[in-house]
Amino acid sequence: MKNPLAWLRERRAIVWPLPPGFVDWIGSTAANVSVTPQSAMNVPAVFSCLQVLSQDTARTPIKLREKVDDDTFMDATAHPLWELLHDLSNPEMTAFQFKAVMEWNLLLYGVAYAEIVRVDGRVTQLWPLDPTQMRVDRTPQRVKRWTYSGGYPPALYTWTFDASQPPILELVSESPIVRCRDLIATAISLQTYVGKFFANNARPTGVLQAVGSISDATAGRLRDTWATSYGGAANVGKVAVLDSGVEFKPIAQQNDQAQVNEMLASINQQIAGTFRVPTWKIGDLSKTTYSNMESGELSYVTSTLDPIFELWEESIRRDLLTTRQYGRYTATFDRHALIRNDLKTINASLAQGIQNGFLSQNDARRQLGLNPIPDGDVYLVNSALQPVGAPKEVPGVA
Description:
The protein is α+β, with helices and mostly antiparallel strands. The chain has helices at 22-26, 37-40, 44-59, 80-86, 95-109, 176-179, 181-199, 216-230, 255-258, 260-275, 290-320, 343-355, 361-367, and strands at residues 62-69, 72-75, 88-90, 93-94, 111-119, 122-129, 134-138, 144-150, 155-160, 168-172, 206-210, 246-250, 329-333. The chain folds into 3 domains: 1-202 and 253-340, no CATH class; 205-251; 346-398, no CATH class. Helices cover 39% and strands 18% of the residues. Helix 3 (44-59) crosses helix 5 (95-109), helix 3 (44-59) packs parallel to helix 10 (260-275) and helix 7 runs antiparallel to helix 10. The model is unreliable at 1-27 (pLDDT under 50).
């Protein structure tokens, strides 16, 4: 008997996107708050993490490299994919915009799609697609199929998988929002509480107490009059005038007792940890110093961005390069664009490379964004260094 879950182990597993309202029907949160990808973006920490990761991915150049020797790669600037990945992905979107949209969708929905437009087999354009409008299944012949309900004019567009010319660039990674939706629901509830707190004159609710019994109509009139005249931040400082025998008794409840600030800070840190983003990148500088920020930037690139880059690089290789190009071309993110130390450290590192012979002057100038100079491609080495066992030179003897 065939295992009904065997399809999960296929190389190209079926992935369902998370449309708006997805979390509503997979279960409620502990805070009894509905969390959708759209409502999650209203949490500042979540929005900051989405911005940081999508923008850092977008600003890192993708370079198509061609293997010209066993251990030598060069920029394949003449290849049609170079312009699509490095400069202009389609006539209306730069490569930065394309990567930002794709990474945003990937983080928010766990999947990102782009239509691959080909002319005579050559990739000419890449167009991002809305994941909420995409359905992925298989034909009766078990061929992967994408069905998209969108575009202009609105219509159904269908693509089937072709190993020689894949029609869709597909990125798949589980969304952090799904796994931490209870935490996000708590953040939404806390934001609602703080908003209501300040909407009510930045004071907790109180009691209007009258001497003796009053009718329901009188009680309603007193409550509505009080809320209209003295409620809200716009009415702060007004002098209250009460009817005879009516007394206002506020219910004391200090926000510092409820530790609102500590709760907000803790939630922000946990959300940042879920996205694997350093807290200072979302505006929390409470535990930040210059030294740990400098070392943290390198850790952020290697532990957070590197897996994202690897996902992009392997997906590009799978969907945009033909099988005949696998061994000859490779797409890679230029990590050097993210790792920028202070000018003194950069100059010292480049000078050391020139002195030790693994960098030329022009290599160093390119990393500084400067134009090459004549005769700058010569690799020099410190003349004081000699191979082990070499005869010593005698001064004055030719």
